Amino acid sequence: MSMHKNYFKTAESNELFERWLSNYPLSMHPFDMDRWTHFVYSIVKNGEEFNSEILEDGLNTHNHNGNQQQITDFMNRFESMKAIYQLCKN
Question: CA-CA distance, 83 to 63, in Å (whole number)?
């Protein structure tokens, strides 16, 4: 059983991160990518800070142990999605 950590200032972002981590986040299955998308939207909408250390800690806490390439890939996805969401806000 994993221990829930609060990485973010809003309950929404913490809950969505936990929901993504609690399933199979590294599978790239459409359901997992949908959970990732909702999480990223929450992060951007709520002005949360997110970095590779938080991602790595979250994965390790849930025993997913993503390798460095997977972490880099998700952070690149995060930055791309963040840029798109910020453009849409304006």
Answer: 30
